[in-house]
Here is the input.
Amino acid sequence: MEKKIYFIEPVFEAKYWGGQALKERYGYTPDLPNIAIAYHVIALPQHHLDNTVRETGEKLSEFYKNHSELFGCNREDFPIRMGSGNKVKQISVQLHPNDEYCLSHEGERGKFECGIFVQGDRNHLAIRGHNAKTREEFRELVETEQWDKLFRVVTIKKGQYTYGPQGTLHGSPYAPTEEEKDMVELGFETNSDITYRLYDWGRNMPDRPLHVEKVIETVNIPDDQNMGVDIVEKDIDGCKVAYFIDKPGIFTAFRIRVDENGTFERKEFMFLFCIDGEAEINGTVIKKGETIFIPCNYGTLTIKGKAEFGGMTYRNL
Here is the structure.
């Protein structure tokens, strides 16, 4: 298979909490009432969420299996995903279980998460972890519904990113204000869709069941250190590069900003999503809202233009 740049078509999901900001920002036009999540990279055919590779017409899950030499990855399952989210309503308090528990109970791996805000970035409050010191205390606070005492609410500062290891309790402590409804977050995740909800603010929606016992079994104890993380950006060959997470066996997530000309290279395969602007990469024009795939050992990328990219890859253990 030719080692060239491939375009990845997005897939979309509407949810009760989704808004219109992604349609307005990127010009996406799915026949949906809202776009809660635009998946730039996802391969979950069992959940009917699977990108299409424009040049071959294959689903991304098929492309990964049929052309493994382009990935150089030692995993049978596709390892990563990347998507943009916009919420206009309060989301539940939830977690993603660890691999061992998730594989034995759900038949797939758990999920790590990382996110940066690319629109409407501002200081805001978020639930990150909890205040219980033991699992017994956690259970007691849940059973007595002492949510204010249990949930750990922190300020995510403008310009920070978030990181959520498996088992991290997280959610929204309040509904977005009018000015917060335009916020767009770019998320980097392992390729799983298993979520356990602890509390859904009394909504009792039939299609959103709670998983209280599973949360109690899998929540991290203790979990009182999770905060927003400051972004560290470095000038590398004409690019401003910031790495968020770079962990073998989990994922590598980064941002690249170019003001005029720059070069960038990694030996691993890469997905690049154009957050803003427009650029030419090795002769291929990439516009805001588009995603490309670069095979492993592709060589140097020469980037011309003014653009910002979210990037993602996977390093073998």
Remarks:
- The two ends are 25 Å apart (CA to CA).
